[in-house]
Amino acid sequence: MSRQHGFAYLWNLMLVAFMGVGLAIASETYATAARRDKEAQLLFIGHEFRQALSRYHEAQGAGGAAQYPLTLEELLKDPRYPGAKRHLRRLYKDPITGKAEWGLLRQQGRIVGVYSLSEQMPIKQGGFRDEDKNLNRKPRYADWLFTYPADLFTVAPPPKTDIIPAITSGGR
After folding, report:
1. In sequence order, what are the beta bridge partners of 60?
2. Where is 166: in which H helix or E strand?
3. Cβ-based neighbour number of residue 21 at 10 Å
4. In percent, how much of the chain has pLDDT > 90?
């Protein structure tokens, strides 16, 4: 009888070990899926900023000249118009860092693009849209530049340049 108890104990130990391995695999799969979801969010938000910069640039305002905004807040309420003209509904948080801070790409003091401040290596390395082909094989998320026009820059700026906190309205 005592030998049977020993087999039951061994089976329980093996069951616990298999469950541990299964949970480790499941947690790794979940973490990868969560990172892929954050990458998809970063691409969506980057496109939102690119479209907002495009609308701001094309809307010539009272001065009649096409120009880029001085601050991200100008995308929320264009100061060139007397009424509330919005090019972006809200300033998004960076889904990779979770912070409301973006790196800003400037030309002549005006914002022409944004990028994440994350130094992590992206999972996605290819298969981007035509307008995002410059994102192929980038070593870090900070190298994913969202500019208007899309091919304005081909080389990322050094990390941690011109970081500003963005004012967020609402969650996400």
Report:
1. none
2. none
3. 10
4. 59
Report the relative pairing of strands 101-107 and 145-147 from DSSP bridges.
Answer: unpaired
End-to-end CA distance of the chain: 61
CA distance 13 to 78: 66
C-alpha span between 148 and 137 (Å, rounded)? 21
For residues 10 and 53, give the distance between their C-alpha atoms in angstroms, rounded to a whole number.
64
What is the C-alpha separation between 110 and 67, in angstroms, rounded?
8
The secondary structure element, H or E, covering residue 59 is none
Which amino acid is residue 75, in one-letter code?
A: L
Write the pLDDT tens digit of every residue in 50-59.
Answer: 999 999 999 8
Which of these, 165, 42, 35, 47, lies nearest to 99 by C-alpha position? 165
Helices then strands, counting H and E runs in the chain, come out as: 2, 4
Q: DSSP for 93-113?
A: PPTTT-SSEEEEEEETTEEEE
pLDDT, one tens digit per residue, over 25-35 is: 998 888 889 99
